[in-house]
Amino acid sequence: MSSKGIPEIAPRFPAPAPEALALIRERRSIRAFLRDPVPDTLLEQLLQTARQAPSGGNLQPGRFIAVRGARRERLMAALLQDFAAQAPECEDYAYFPQPMPMQLRKRQVAAAQALYGALGVARDDRAGRDAQFARNYRFFDAPVALVVTIDSHFGPGGYMDLGMALYGLQLAAAAHGLGCCAIGALASYPATVRRVLDLPETQHIVCGLALGWTDEAAPINQTQTTRAPLNEWFQTLE
C-alpha cells in the first residue's frame, strides 16, 4: 500500500529467458571451425528460422546460396587470385563511410588489434596479416560456405531487412551450438563472385557467411570485441 492507502501496482516485467540473453550476449564471430559437416536438414532449419526476422511489407529481400564442392573451390581460387593481385573492382554498395570519422577508425583499429593479437601477428607483419585476411576468401575453411545476395532494385531498407535475417541466422546457429562469421570481404569482388556462380548482374553481392561447429581450442576464437557505451549512441529527448 502507498502512504495514501492506494494499492501499489508493481511494474510487470516478464522474466527474461536466460538462454536467449546468453545467446545474444555471448555471440561472437568464429573464424576457426571443426571439420564435422552440418546436416542439410539443420541448415535448412536455421534458414527457415532466420526468415522470421522483421521485413517491411513482408518482402523478405535477399538470397542465401550454399556453395559446395568444385564450385566452392573455383570461387575460392578466383577470390584468392584477385586478393593476391590487389585487383581493383567496383563494389555493389558502400559499407564504410568516406572519409572515416576518427571515432569509428579507433573502433576499427581496436578490433583489428584484438584479432591479430590473439594470433600473435605483429602490427608490422604485413605477410602475416595478409595471410590471415586471405582466409576470408576460403570461408575460414568452414563446412558451410554461404554467399548472400540482394536484388539490385532494393534500396537501403532492403539491406536493413536482410541484415536482420542475417543476425537471426547467426543467433539460430548459436542456439544449436554452431558458430558463424559474416564475411564482408566477399563484397570487394562482386563481378568475380557473379561470374563463378553464374549470377545475373541484378544480384548484388552483400557478403559471405562461414558456418560450422566452433573450434573452441583455436586462439582466434577467443577474440571478443567491445561495444560502445550506451551514452554514445542513445539519448532521450523531451
TrEMBL record:
Keywords: Oxidoreductase. Transmembrane segments: none annotated. Residues 24-213 form the Nitroreductase domain. This is Nitroreductase. Belongs to the nitroreductase family. Coiled coil: none annotated. It comes from the Bacteria.
